[in-house]
Amino acid sequence: MFPNTITPVIINGTQAHLGTPISFTNDSFYDMANCQSLDKISAISELTKTDFTIFPNPTTGLIQFFGYNDILSVEIISPNGIMINKFQVKETIDLTDLPSGTYFLKIISKGGKRIKKLIKQ
């Protein structure tokens, strides 16, 4: 990471990688570093169309999963690949305390892994 920059996540089909850092002026961004853990994932290896729905998306807090019954766990991943939180099997997850922004949900099920984009307002 570079000071005064934001690194975008570039998604191309089933591949995701970090793009070129974008510079910004001081005090023109919201710092989310205080909500991140130190556990990094190495890559988002599987970005696929999913056969279930996350509702509502965008969300202000609570999200629900519909049409997919074999979810084992859900990980909340920041755009730079850091796992923020992990939840065990639940129909509803409370993200009220999560800062506004774009995140990825890594959904682990009996059938494999799926990644879904989530916007928190």
Structure described in brief:
With 121 residues, this protein is mainly beta. It contains no helices and 11 strands.
* Low-pLDDT residue intervals, each spanning 5 or more residues: 32-40, 42-50
The whole-angstrom Rg is 15 Å
CATH-defined architecture of the domain at 37-120? Sandwich
Span from first to last CA?
25 Å
Quickly name the level 1 CATH class of the domain at 37-120: Mainly Beta
- Percent of residues in helices comes to under 10%
CATH topology of the domain at 37-120: Immunoglobulin-like
Number of strand segments? 11
* DSSP helical segment count: 0
State mean pLDDT (0 to 100 scale): 75
Can you give a write-up of this model?
With 121 residues, this protein is mainly beta. It has a domain at 37-120: Sandwich (Immunoglobulin-like), CATH 2.60.40. 0% of the residues lie in helices and 45% in strands. The protein is built from no helices and 11 strands. A 4-stranded antiparallel β-sheet has the order 8-7-10-11, with no helix packed on it. It is globular, with a radius of gyration of 15 Å.
